Amino acid sequence: MAFRQKHLLGIEPLHPDEITALLDVADRYVDLSRQPNKHSDALKGLTQINMFFENSTRTQSSFELAGKRLGADVMNMAMQASSIKKGETLIDTALTLNAMHPDLLVVRHPHSGAVDLLAQKVNCAVLNAGDGRHEHPTQALLDALTIRRAKGRLHRLNIAICGDIAHSRVARSNLMLLGKMENRVRLVGPPTLVPQQFREFGCEIYDDMAEGLKDVDVVMMLRLQKERMDGGFIPSEREYFYRYGLDADKLAHAKPDAIVMHPGPMNRGVEIDGTIADDINRSVIQEQVEMGVAVRMAAMDLLARNLRTDREANKGVMV
């Protein structure tokens, strides 16, 4: 099955075969990125605009690097100094951008649904780099690629996602993707951060790390999203680490070959012990960063192919 999407707004619309197709292309870009000459001309002649309304290090830099390696003209918009700050609406910003004829628009926004709204107003491919608490599709895809390469498959694994589920768009996207690929997913954390409504995703919920990590293949830790918390979700960071931070004793309940993941940025000594994060035999956190560039290259490549096909089909058609 081909990758049929015009935008990458979330994991929810993707068919399992489309996920596999994107990961297969990403695998090839991992190989390319390890070569002395890391460049391709897949996006040659196309313009990529990165609009980050929230601060980002990993996601923005990897999208920029991905576009440049594919030969795109890449522009990063300084949204903190943009007309949005002067009162311009998001729709007016979209219309202004559309007049510049971009081909790929990468957007991170603090409000859920904002990226989807932009996609309705522009004539280019839009990629969601994270919108509010809603979704972060490329993070889930790079996590999937990391798991597939480490475990040799992406189905029928036991996977524990631990920590601040309530505020995490990464958790939501991963729940959807891992569910589509027939994995057994557990959510582990304090009841204040793991609402029972997440059972709707078909996962199991635990508030005890020893039980939640028992015999899992993958341990995915999440950052405490303190900037999205407006109340006392945890008694203290020290108490949180004691009960829910990943250390050697808690990891011992997982399978001996279980891998450890974290989307970053990490709060060492809060969500994860530094020794575990740096353990080259268990941690794949640095591999996640590498896979991020390859997955974003694959996503933009596939969307650009569909964009070119649509434009070719519409050439000469009166609007």
Automatic annotation (TrEMBL):
<dbReference type="GO" id="GO:0016597">
    <property type="term" value="F:amino acid binding"/>
</dbReference>
<comment type="pathway">
    <text>Pyrimidine metabolism; UMP biosynthesis via de novo pathway; (S)-dihydroorotate from bicarbonate: step 2/3.</text>
</comment>
<comment type="function">
    <text>Catalyzes the condensation of carbamoyl phosphate and aspartate to form carbamoyl aspartate and inorganic phosphate, the committed step in the de novo pyrimidine nucleotide biosynthesis pathway.</text>
</comment>
<dbReference type="GO" id="GO:0004070">
    <property type="term" value="F:aspartate carbamoyltransferase activity"/>
</dbReference>
<feature type="binding site">
    <location>
        <position position="86"/>
    </location>
    <ligand>
        <name>L-aspartate</name>
    </ligand>
</feature>
<feature type="binding site">
    <location>
        <position position="169"/>
    </location>
    <ligand>
        <name>L-aspartate</name>
    </ligand>
</feature>
<protein>
    <recommendedName>
        <fullName>Aspartate carbamoyltransferase</fullName>
        <ecNumber>2.1.3.2</ecNumber>
    </recommendedName>
</protein>
<feature type="binding site">
    <location>
        <position position="265"/>
    </location>
    <ligand>
        <name>carbamoyl phosphate</name>
    </ligand>
</feature>
<dbReference type="GO" id="GO:0006207">
    <property type="term" value="P:'de novo' pyrimidine nucleobase biosynthetic process"/>
</dbReference>
<keyword id="KW-0665">Pyrimidine biosynthesis</keyword>
<dbReference type="GO" id="GO:0005829">
    <property type="term" value="C:cytosol"/>
</dbReference>
<dbReference type="Pfam" id="PF02729">
    <property type="entry name" value="OTCace_N"/>
</dbReference>
<dbReference type="InterPro" id="IPR006132">
    <property type="entry name" value="Asp/Orn_carbamoyltranf_P-bd"/>
</dbReference>
<feature type="binding site">
    <location>
        <position position="139"/>
    </location>
    <ligand>
        <name>carbamoyl phosphate</name>
    </ligand>
</feature>
<dbReference type="InterPro" id="IPR002082">
    <property type="entry name" value="Asp_carbamoyltransf"/>
</dbReference>
<comment type="function">
    <text>Reversibly catalyzes the transfer of the carbamoyl group from carbamoyl phosphate (CP) to the N(epsilon) atom of ornithine (ORN) to produce L-citrulline.</text>
</comment>
<comment type="similarity">
    <text>Belongs to the aspartate/ornithine carbamoyltransferase superfamily. ATCase family.</text>
</comment>
<feature type="binding site">
    <location>
        <position position="136"/>
    </location>
    <ligand>
        <name>carbamoyl phosphate</name>
    </ligand>
</feature>
<dbReference type="InterPro" id="IPR006130">
    <property type="entry name" value="Asp/Orn_carbamoylTrfase"/>
</dbReference>
<feature type="binding site">
    <location>
        <position position="223"/>
    </location>
    <ligand>
        <name>L-aspartate</name>
    </ligand>
</feature>
<feature type="domain" description="Aspartate/ornithine carbamoyltransferase Asp/Orn-binding">
    <location>
        <begin position="157"/>
        <end position="302"/>
    </location>
</feature>
<feature type="binding site">
    <location>
        <position position="108"/>
    </location>
    <ligand>
        <name>carbamoyl phosphate</name>
    </ligand>
</feature>
<feature type="binding site">
    <location>
        <position position="264"/>
    </location>
    <ligand>
        <name>carbamoyl phosphate</name>
    </ligand>
</feature>
<dbReference type="GO" id="GO:0044205">
    <property type="term" value="P:'de novo' UMP biosynthetic process"/>
</dbReference>
<dbReference type="GO" id="GO:0006520">
    <property type="term" value="P:amino acid metabolic process"/>
</dbReference>
<feature type="domain" description="Aspartate/ornithine carbamoyltransferase carbamoyl-P binding">
    <location>
        <begin position="6"/>
        <end position="148"/>
    </location>
</feature>
<dbReference type="Pfam" id="PF00185">
    <property type="entry name" value="OTCace"/>
</dbReference>
<feature type="binding site">
    <location>
        <position position="59"/>
    </location>
    <ligand>
        <name>carbamoyl phosphate</name>
    </ligand>
</feature>
<comment type="subunit">
    <text>Heterododecamer (2C3:3R2) of six catalytic PyrB chains organized as two trimers (C3), and six regulatory PyrI chains organized as three dimers (R2).</text>
</comment>
<dbReference type="InterPro" id="IPR036901">
    <property type="entry name" value="Asp/Orn_carbamoylTrfase_sf"/>
</dbReference>
<feature type="binding site">
    <location>
        <position position="58"/>
    </location>
    <ligand>
        <name>carbamoyl phosphate</name>
    </ligand>
</feature>
<dbReference type="InterPro" id="IPR006131">
    <property type="entry name" value="Asp_carbamoyltransf_Asp/Orn-bd"/>
</dbReference>
<keyword id="KW-0808">Transferase</keyword>
